[in-house]
Amino acid sequence: MSHLNPRIHLACCLASLLSACGSSDGPSVTLPAGDGEGFLGDPHRGGASTPPRLLEMTFGRLVVVHDVDALGRVSSLPVHRDFVINENLFSDGTNYTLETNPLTHGSRLIIHRTQGAPNNGQASFESLLRQAERNLPNILPKSEGAAPPFSLVARNACLVLRFDDVLDDSEDARRYLNEMIRVSTGAPNALPLVNRILFDTNHGANVRGEFHTTRVLVDFTTSEVEVAGMTTTLPLNLLGLPASDSSVSTANIVVRIPTRESIGIQTRVLRGLGGAPLDPTVHGPADLQSPTRDVVRAMRSGNRESINGGFLLDLRAPEIAATWPVQVIEAVANSADELSIDLSFTTHCRRDPRPGDILSVGQHVFEVTETAELDSLGDARGVRMRVLTSAPVSLVELAGGARYMTTYAAGGAVDGLCWLSVSPRPEGEDGRSFAPHSTIEIAFTEAMEPALLGSLEGFQVIRGGNSNAISSRNIVVGSMTSSTNLQSFRFSPVAPLDSSVGDHYIALNDYTDLSGNHLPARPDSIPFRVESPQDPSYSRGLVLRFERVDELGPEGANDLRGQFFFNFERGAIRPRRVSFLSADADRTNPVPSIMVASPSGPVTPLSYLGSKLQTVWRYADFGWSVRDESKYNIDVVGLSWSPFGGVPYNDYFDRFEIRLAHSNRLPDEQIGDGLLPRYENSGLLSAGFERNALDPQQVVHPKELGYRVDSADLFTSNSGTRLMPWPLNRSGADRVSYTWRDTSILDKGGNAGAGIPMAIETGSPLEIEPGPAGSIAPKREVPSFGLPLLMEFRCFPSAAAFGRNAFDVSLAVNSSPMPRFRVYSTGGTNTAGSLISVDPETENRPRGGFNPGSTPPGRRTRNGDNTFYIGQMDYVVRISRVHTAWFDTRDSSPDYRQPVLEPREQPPGTEILIDYRGATGFAASADKPFDARHLNAYGELSPNLVDFHGGSDAWTENIDEIDGARFLQMRLTFVNNIDSGEIPSLSALGIPYTGRGGTIKIDRRELR
Description:
mainly beta; Immunoglobulin-like; Elongation Factor Tu (Ef-tu), domain 3; 7 helices; 6-stranded mixed sheet; 68 strands; 7-stranded mixed sheet; flat
């Protein structure tokens, strides 16, 4: 039995070169190492008994270094393994060739010089090697709690930790190195990362006749070859570090070097050759509070917005990779690290072996070094391969089954299906008959941009033969899942593949890796057919790719309406961007400008005896038109009030609560006959606070947070009004918002008024809206975008408060207290001179306050009036809503499946929500239901036009609830991240559904 061990062979080859070695500090001298490998001398202190110091931490690209012989041929054995070079070093045609095997991901740097040869007027091997490792980017010495910025490290880089003295790199130290140096990620940097950590055998010094290193390497990636050569198990990791969050600038990667052992926590620490551990007090940042007194270095990993997508500079194009089954017939050793192997391909997937192809046999990995040709039987004889793994190779044990890995090249005769992996294995003589539940996988040589590999746009399965153009009705809706390293992607149909059509094909599109390099070649459309099971299931789907406005509706119609923007070049839609805005409800706007300014200001609700106030602001109070849809679906994040006379007073209320809702009342103060309000009962109701809310109230400021009135907070609005902020979102806690003019609320209000537009807008003296009043929506039918913001303030009795602040207010009309713009209960002194307090939690009905100027003093006031509070509202664009037209499934009773949205991953804190409703028919035969231009802001058509499924027009988030409805409508809600400013986007949306035999009417036009 023959055994090969490349590491042992390498040592033997170099043994004759060994001579007595002494310590050397020479930075450009290559010395033979004690273990048989050459090394570069680093400055050191001879293994002193004093603690070694961490001089620097850098990062770069990990490679294997080869030289050439006198004829310029690349040496088969590497001069250096695990050598870190500058990421910007690439092939120059003269001195360097940098090669990366696309399948193993191992990089090889060839220096076109012979090691040890004189320079002959050219740079020597040694000087070029030193040049290759120069100017590695530095990691700034910072702890995770330091202020930004932090050093940015490439996700797939290798860290180099250089010390000022040689280290204890004994076998025991190597075994426990992953314990002596720890890497963690996440907030608060507590999740351990499993990395390959090793002593650098390329740099160090000979001390007392033995080589010892001065450096430690932390390799963030682990390739399949590296895993195969390890004695301990590490997970395969081709991406490296997790990406940092682009919305923050804090550190997300921390390297810790414990300097003190601790029972149960740390059994060993990194030491110098003299036995001393590091001293944390002289290494810059350190965690002296931890039991192990760690030396700390914090940094940020790259992300999608970083240079090169967060990775090392990559100019190599990705390729499609495939793994085919083979049989190893025989293996013969040519040299210590090279074999000749006879292969037999066991399926029709085969081609001539090419340099760079990989053979994997158990734990052994081999790389093809020369092109070979297949014989007439499809076998490859004498394929020359080099050994990539370090485990001893038994030539006899190589015989048998193996895996052959290769990459796609244009122009070959290989069947397109050979570049995919289908499960279960296709049937039929030609291997093209898929089971209805088949999954299809495609693999690449490196991590790919997942957004380009969606099932609806990037990797498409099409119903019908490949002569059928791709359309919104013949794309098979499926889910696409990726491996953790983003190198393989699996398509799974949401519903079984449609056997009623039979012929299908797979269309591959343009893909890029994470650095933006494009796939240079891909197969043409790949045809297959679907088996016909005994109980067939017929599958269809509706797909929007946002490439035009009428993908599913009649030609020229609109599929969508709402708050969105098309990007036809990308084929995507996006919502409104995050915008923080303020709107003044003051006398500079038309409607409040004709109100009567009050000569005095009420203290409600800031009473030390307690108060409960409900008051409203309408869209018109901010100077907005009711027709302006840019002001629909806005989130209130701040409120302000105007102090009477512009002078506030410091005060403190230990319990103070704010609630927001839509009011179901719409005060309309238009004057009628007799100078009295025409719609005096249109305002808030005094029979009970709860009767004024259209939707459940939302607590936006909990009572426990209280309210400190600080006169230093006084500010002037853009309109010149002096304002004080209510405590909403001023505590430092997570931001809270309430969506006003919310088009997901279908309940209506506006009883006893004129409807919208209001009469105060259309009538004299303003006439700022075209009439007549109520032409958009009559009374009792006013939708949420026309209803006021209902603000409820609950001020609890407080012995610490003074209650001196009065509010700048106006009276909507001065001929009557109606219609009510506010209802309230406020504590005070009654006619008997007793103090009456108000607990807002038990105050169910407004009772008014107490008038100190009445006769006798202390009589009850009205419980509501037309007092209008001057102020300001701060709002943000968080929500955008989009409604689809009605889509015809062309199936009498479809069974809907879960939708597929692309891209699958949205920015953190953003989301896209979908609601559904179904219909069985329409009262009119025209195209109105299928053209979104006929919808209003709620997705509604004219009344009584839609025959809703189940008789209900309610939306549901569960698509199964509309099973059986031929027609489908969707409401999309885009939710922005108002803290980071990021927004979601939608590039494709697929709705799959199935029917049973006899229910789907096959229309071949659907396939065109």
